[in-house]
Each structure stands twice: as C-alpha cells, then as structure tokens.
Amino acid sequence: MSRIGKLPVPVPAGAAVTVAPDGATVTVKGPKGQLSRTLPFVTVAVQGASAVVSTTGDTQKHHACHGLARVLLNNMVVGVTQGHKRGLVITGTGYKAEVSGQTLTLSVGYSHPVVFEVPKTIKVGVEAKGTEVVLESADKELLGQVAATLRGFRPPEPYKGKGVRYSDEVIRRKAGKAGKK
C-alpha cells in the first residue's frame, strides 16, 4: 500500500467532490472552477470532509497508480479552492512579453515576435515592465504544460542566462572563454 495513497484528501468548505457510479470518475467543484478526471486502477470514496483513494486490485500497476491518483485528486481540490500559480522570468536585452486578452506576445531575440494563444482556463498577467509572466489556473497539469511551452520558445542559456526561465529555477552558469594570455 502506498504511503502517499493511503492518506485522505481533505476537502475544505466551499469545495464539493462527487464521484460517478463507476467510482473512478471524480468531479471537484469550488469557487475557482470545476475539474473532472477519470483516475485509473483506483476508486474514490467521499467520507465527510475528506476523500479516500483505494486500489481496485493487487498488481504492481495498481500500487503504482495509487499514490499518483491521490496526488492528482489533491491537486484538483487545491486548484478549485486556492488555485495554482506559475511564474516565468524573461532575461535578455530587448526581451519582453506583452499580453492582450488571451494572446501573449513574446519578443525573445528572433526576427519576429512569438505569438501564443493562452487557453481560456488560464489567467495570464505581465509584470515588471514585461520581464515577468504570471500564469494562474485551477488545472495544475495544463498550467505546467503551458509554462513549459512558453519556456521552450527560448530556454535559458548557460553563459549569460538569457532566455525564459521559471521564477524558482536556478541556471548553472558556465565561465566561457578564458581569453588571451
């Protein structure tokens, strides 16, 4: 039995967890939105102010998915109550970001601006004169995928640190050329 999987998921006031009759499809509603997901190899039971995840079998695949399903359910509950946030920092001369509606335009050293259409469920904001991008959403998986896509347009390079990086990411710098003697 998974140490993580056997922990109950606390459901705070204002959030509601409903389970479909199959026991694997879970819908979580809260003030920040609604999320739904089918969790394989497990069943979910709501007991009072918590949800308990249990496996449907005794194979290695069932045990492997037990902790994963519990963490996915917990991320859904946290997302609809508090929300998830991810920050990106843009470093480089002339590098900046602009937002208009759900369209994010990045100027990151190419001959053309990079235009990215942000999904409707993600709230995007630009701060600090266009060098910081803040993404907020209830869906942690989608939020991480969008942040990774934005970082992929210009990953940070190790010599000067130019590029798009996560706000909590540390770039290991290289010394570069030693120069003439």
Could you explain how this protein is built, in words?
The chain is an alpha+beta fold and 181 residues long. The chain folds into two domains: 9-81, Ribosomal protein L6 (Outer Surface Protein A, domain 3, Alpha-Beta Complex); 84-166, Outer Surface Protein A, domain 3 (Alpha-Beta Complex), CATH 3.90.930. It is built from two helices and 13 strands. Strands 11-12-7-13 form a four-stranded antiparallel beta sheet, covered by helices on one side. It has a three-stranded antiparallel beta sheet with strand order 1-6-5. It has a three-stranded antiparallel beta sheet with strand order 2-3-4, covered by helices on one side. A hairpin with a 4-residue loop joins β11 and β12. The chain starts with 8 loop residues before the first strand and ends in a 15-residue tail after the last strand.
Describe this protein with a few key phrases.
181 residues, alpha+beta, Outer Surface Protein A, domain 3, 2 domains, 4-stranded antiparallel beta sheet, 3-stranded antiparallel beta sheet, 37% strand
CATH architecture of the largest domain: Alpha-Beta Complex
Largest sheet: 4 strands, antiparallel
Please give the CATH class of the largest domain: Alpha Beta
Return the string of H and E elements.
Answer: EEEEEEHEEEEEEHE
Task: Please outline the helices and strands.
Layout: E1 9-10, E2 16-19, E3 25-30, E4 33-38, E5 42-47, E6 50-55, H1 60-81, E7 84-91, E8 96-100, E9 103-107, E10 114-117, E11 123-127, E12 132-137, H2 140-152, E13 163-166
Antiparallel strand pairs: 1-6, 2-3, 3-4, 5-6, 7-12, 7-13, 8-9, 9-10, 11-12
